[in-house]
Design a protein that fits this description.
The protein has about 400 residues and is an alpha/beta fold. Helix content is about 30%, strand content about 25%.
Length: about 400
């Protein structure tokens, strides 16, 4: 499976080509397997940003483009590495491309990679060898038919497949393969803990009801886009309220974190803003996904614009707020008359709507404001029901 010099050169030379045209020109390259190489180019495009260390390695092979689409990013894989111990043994029950297996293996003593598709196993063996990950054992098996052979380890890791018939995406945990709620009791007999990567679309509270023994939930977002939910379950009954950890990595690689419990959120009394103050705040995607809407006000001394708006304000600058921060320049009461004239004042802006009757597209059509620039325009509703447009800029 080792890529030849000619194959590597072809991948490099055609990295930015139109792949459909490249496939159609296969007859020009009789000595090369063009469909295979086109698949490699397509997969590498998928991982260029999210998995830079693998992208730089020219000897790595990818079984399919979809494997590269669905794999963990380097940032999220490195974060999950924090959840395991150096002396642990692990078993990855749904190996896939092997990103998580590889990064776990860089910390734990031994890891077993299990995958039902033979081609994925062949590729994983090759890639792990190229990467020098000699503490990984590759097993080709369907975990649901391999339960009696599973090793006793310190932790199982599982990433249930979220595609059903005809490659259709599914989000209900019971529809994923394998069925984690059914497997969990058996897994916890063999290991004291199970770590699960779930769809960012999953409902956290409903999933907690399905996965007893959960001690923590990790909501991971990259560049303000929610990517993964990580549930950590333990065998021992602690009657512990799970802690929700919200992580977001910005484009420069910096990390923002916020932790709370659902009980804290439920018991918090919120104070609504009577007006918009000097600064406006928008929580990052992981905080919004986790639903820490009331705890944000207590921890950072900010006030919420409306129970459903998920925007916050304060008179003083909160420099460590887990999300975007803006300086408020003007607040406009929303009206049809305003829409007709606003583009003369604000010809260009980045528009966001929160709890507002119009979509971004509808608001642009009504106001004729073009996209981009240094102005940020938030359309939202205040606690008294008034609809407003908030003109903001980024703090210097």
């Amino acid at each position: 499976m080792l890529l030849t010099t000619d194959q590597i050169q072809f991948i490099q030379e055609h990295a930015t080509d139109d792949l459909t045209r490249l496939l159609l020109s296969a007859s020009k390259y009789t000595a090369l397997d063009i469909p295979f190489l086109v698949e490699q180019i397509a997969a590498r495009r998928q991982i260029r940003e999210k998995l830079p260390s693998w992208y730089m390695n020219e000897q790595l092979v990818f079984p399919t483009k979809i494997a590269a689409e669905q794999c963990s990013s380097e940032q999220t894989a490195l974060y999950k590495q924090r959840l395991v111990g150096e002396e642990w043994t692990m078993c990855d029950l749904t190996g896939g491309l092997g990103i998580d297996s590889y990064f776990f293996s860089r910390k734990v003593k031994q890891l077993v990679y299990i995958e039902r598709f033979p081609i994925y196993c062949d590729v994983a063996k090759h890639n792990f060898q190229v990467l020098g990950a000699d503490n990984i054992t590759v097993v080709n098996a369907d975990v649901t038919q391999y339960l009696d052979e599973l090793p006793k380890v310190d932790a199982f890791y599982i990433d249930p497949a979220r595609r059903g018939e005809c490659n259709k995406r599914v989000f209900a945990l019971s529809d994923c393969e394998p069925n984690l709620p059914l497997l969990l009791p058996h897994l916890l007999k063999l290991a004291p803990r199970v770590i699960a990567k779930l769809s960012p679309m999953a409902d956290i509270q409903m999933t907690l009801d399905l996965l007893p023994g959960t001690i923590s939930v990790h909501v991971l977002s990259v560049k303000n886009e929610c990517k993964e939910l990580i549930f950590v379950m333990e065998r021992e009954e602690r009657n512990q309220v799970p802690t929700i950890h919200c992580l977001n990595w910005t484009s420069d690689g910096s990390e923002s974190s916020f932790s709370f419990t659902l009980k804290e959120e439920q018991e918090t009394t919120i104070t609504m803003a009577q007006s918009i103050a000097s600064y406006l705040y928008e929580p990052n995607a992981s905080v919004l996904k986790a639903g820490a809407f009331k705890q944000i006000t207590i921890r950072f001394d900010v006030q919420k614009l409306h129970i459903s708006s998920h925007l916050y304000t304060s008179d003083r600058l909160v420099s460590n707020f887990p999300g975007r921060t803006f300086v408020v320049e003007e607040v406009y009461p929303f009206s049809g008359k305003l829409c007709k004239t606003l583009s003369k004042i604000i010809p260009q802006a980045n528009i966001t709507v929160r709890n507002f009757p119009l979509s971004v597209e509808e608001l642009r059509k009504r106001t004729k404001i073009t996209d981009g620039g240094s102005v940020y325009l938030f359309a939202s509703t205040l606690s008294d029901g008034e609809k407003v447009l908030i003109k903001c800029t980024k703090p210097i």
